[in-house]
């Protein structure tokens, strides 16, 4: 059996690993556009900051592949997938397959802002991006960051560690709108400002002009901003351009079923390029799970993927943050309880209905967040104890 995997990210690598667990003889080939073995992408901000080297974020070293009889082809450009002939054309060769996995991942999405294709505008999505930005920040210390989401803030913190001045332009009325309410986000913003961030919240960038070293941003209904370079962090877009040419069903990503099969026989998809039940996850745990399911099924198994629950336990610039369950857009009344420590700049809020916790938001309250998460997951009845749940001295065994 010939297994061909397009992409050496988390999905492609864990698919190869799963295949080899059940098929010791099949030929496994992985093709990657990058020149590096599989690495831990979430640590790119640390690489940007110069705190680690590319070798230190490699998950599986180069020797891991030959030890498992996996052929890894790096720095190769994929040109075309031919489903009828069952082969893939690259710049330098043609590779035949019996089973194919599309794990081409995604790329940084650029919002529809005039001038983002100009000189001095960057994204942070791979090792080369991080190394390039690290080099540029030796000279250019004034950075405008478009996007106040998690990835953007982590990248911004990496730049601050390099001595850069970072001004964040965020379209929404608060930072991290999916994880935080307005009050919690305002407190997070204060903490980040103490680390050196500057913010323009609720600001819409209309255009970017100028060259590297002299960038100008026009902001709607506001004064403009200037910087020496611009970093854009506005989400990920699936790399579906090549799959689309094959006739495979695509939406926002390559559409797959619970077995990670596409609409064409013997072709699977997983990771940031895959769309499952209308969703492109863009999450490391989802890519790992999808890759494993795809690999096992390519090797003759019968595994199913049931989706991935997003983990909202995060660190933003070293600050603990967590949110679970529903925290907004309630269709039925809920009761809110909160605890704010303005001195420590910590924040906790929970939402309850009929004596059951429905959601929670926590900033810098790691121990409390863990306790509340367990109550939420188990749908523990807390009626009569609602006002005590956020008290550090509360004995949680009283709820058993």
What does this structure look like?
With 400 residues, this protein is an alpha/beta fold. 22% of the residues lie in helices and 29% in strands. The protein has helices at 10-22, 44-48, 64-67, 127-136, 150-161, 182-194, 241-244, 284-298, 366-378, and strands spanning 2-6, 27-31, 70-73, 78-82, 87-90, 94-96, 99-102, 106-108, 121-122, 142-146, 165-170, 197-201, 205-211, 214-219, 225-227, 229-232, 236-238, 254-256, 267-269, 274-276, 313-316, 319-325, 335-341, 346-353, 356-363. It has a 5-stranded parallel sheet with strand order 3-2-1-7-19. The radius of gyration is 23 Å and the shape is globular.
Hey, roughly how much beta strand do the residues contain? 25-35%
Count of helical regions: 9
Shape: globular
Distance N terminus to C terminus? 54 Å
Topology, number of strands: 25
Oligomer: single chain
Rg for CA atoms: 23 Å
Structural class of the helix and strand makeup? alpha/beta
Helix amount: 10-25%
- Kindly report the spatial arrangement of strands forming the biggest sheet: 3-2-1-7-19
């Amino acid at each position: 059996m010939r297994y061909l995997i397009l992409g050496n990210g988390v999905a492609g690598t864990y698919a190869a690993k799963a295949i080899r667990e059940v098929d010791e003889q099949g030929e496994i080939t992985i093709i990657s556009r990058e020149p590096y073995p599989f690495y831990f992408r979430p640590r790119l901000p640390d690489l940007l900051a110069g705190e680690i080297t590319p070798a230190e974020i490699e998950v599986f070293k180069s020797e891991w592949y030959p030890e498992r009889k996996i052929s890894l082809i790096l720095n190769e450009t994929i040109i075309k997938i031919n489903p009828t002939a069952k082969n893939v054309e690259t710049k330098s060769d043609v590779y035949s397959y019996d089973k194919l996995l599309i794990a081409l991942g995604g790329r940084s999405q650029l919002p529809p802002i005039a001038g983002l294709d100009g000189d001095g505008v960057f994204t942070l999505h791979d090792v080369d991006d991080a190394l390039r930005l690290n080099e540029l920040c030796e000279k250019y210390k004034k950075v405008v960051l478009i996007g106040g989401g998690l990835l953007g803030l982590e990248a911004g913190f990496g730049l601050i560690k390099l001595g850069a001045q970072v001004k964040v332009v965020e379209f929404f009325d608060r930072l991290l709108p999916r994880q935080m309410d307005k009050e919690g986000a305002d407190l997070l913003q204060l903490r980040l400002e103490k680390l050196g961030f500057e913010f323009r919240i609720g600001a819409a960038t209309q255009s970017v002009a100028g060259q590297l070293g002299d960038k100008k941003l026009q902001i709607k209904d506001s004064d403009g901003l200037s910087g020496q370079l611009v970093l854009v962090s506005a989400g990920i877009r699936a790399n579906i351009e090549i799959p689309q040419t094959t006739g495979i069903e695509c939406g926002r990503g390559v559409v797959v079923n619970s077995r990670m099969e596409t609409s064409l026989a013997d072709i699977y998809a997983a990771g940031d390029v895959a769309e499952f039940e209308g969703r492109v996850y863009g999450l490391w745990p989802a890519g790992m799970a999808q890759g494993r399911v795809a690999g096992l099924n390519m090797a003759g198994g019968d595994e199913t993927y049931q989706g991935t629950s997003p983990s909202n336990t995060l660190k933003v610039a070293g600050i603990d943050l967590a949110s679970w369950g529903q925290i907004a857009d309630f269709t039925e009344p809920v009761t809110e309880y909160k605890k704010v420590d303005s001195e420590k700049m910590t924040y906790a809020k929970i939402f309850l209905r009929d004596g059951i916790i429905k959601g929670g938001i926590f900033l810098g309250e790691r121990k409390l967040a863990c306790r509340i998460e367990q109550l939420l997951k188990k749908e523990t009845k807390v009626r009569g104890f609602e006002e005590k749940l956020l008290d550090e001295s509360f004995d949680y065994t009283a709820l058993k």
